[in-house]
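Before relying on records like the one below, remember that each one covers exactly one chain. Contacts with other chains, cofactors or solvent are not represented anywhere in the record.
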Amino acid sequence: ARSTARRDASLEPRERLARAMSDDEPLDADARTAWLRSKGVVIETREDREAARAAARRGDGAAIDRDGPTRSFTYVKIPCDDDEALEERTLTIGEGQPGDALPAALRTAFAGGGEVDAEKAKAEAVRALGARGMGISSEAIARETAGGSTETFALVRPSEANGWRGVYLYLDEVGMLKGLPINRRAGRLAQECGFDGVNFHGDMFIGRVQTKPEPMRSVDFPLSDLDSSAQWMRMATMENVEYSKGLKELEAAMGKNGGLEKINMTGDASNVASTGNGMPSGKGVNYRWSQTEDEVEVSVDVAPGTVSKSVRVLFKPSQFIVKVNDEVVCDLSGLHAPIRPDECTWTMGADEVCVSLAKRDDERSWRALVGA
């Protein structure tokens, strides 16, 4: 046993995962973390998080020692007004500053811009926290975000294929609650990367983060990288498909090592099971589904060679329909629980349409995809 342990310690993360899967050995935390990083999942170190919190306390994330060494990187502003030109900007930070510097630096850009809508704020608090959200007022939300609050959206995650460089959108976390205009250019950019049906509100920014070699850090994203011929954009959809597949592989590996337990909660053909996170999942005639605390993921099989332009997905509070060339390939009504149609999305995978259903009640575990 000791010689096996020494031999495994010298293996690469993917080889260790393969050995665990083939030998039915448990996946330890280090192997899971290393494997996730090999798939481009950004995992910050404690030092990264402490640096980010320190930057946030400074207010703008850009306070630096002017007598010490510095470095600069570029990022781009995407105004919500289509008539306003895209703008390349430069941020100067300490040479050794780790982590993504933009969330803290952009807080002031998202300060103000409108009043938080009380009804929308209450609905969002309930959506995010369930019953606990009922006690959170719009005034409290406004107070917490008065100095600006930044949300990130991953267009491409760091991976070996892209040199461990991820591309992210940065937006006002409460832009929708303020009633800011939809940023159509950012929405089209997300669509080019394989994310359909995503709406962003207000002015936004786009930047790049590199995770290897460590530490994670902000790097250049010039205006020229928004050209549709840019390498990162041409590869984005496929990389996102591979990322989704990678997470499914990890889930399968964890399930094989004791995280997957077959159960029968409905007695029908949905073949419900419990995934590695302990929440039910299953499959139907031409689809498979799983869930997290806030989303239900459904992979619908389509004919080989199907392209995203021929696909349409319709979302309703208790139903979604997938069409290919105007022909219905999946129509699931009477969903187990209500969803939020305006926050549901879909992407095109390899011979499948990957549908993400936003749960109305985040803390509710679905016992089945359809039916009570």
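Residues 1-26, 55-62, 258-272 have pLDDT under 50 and may be disordered.
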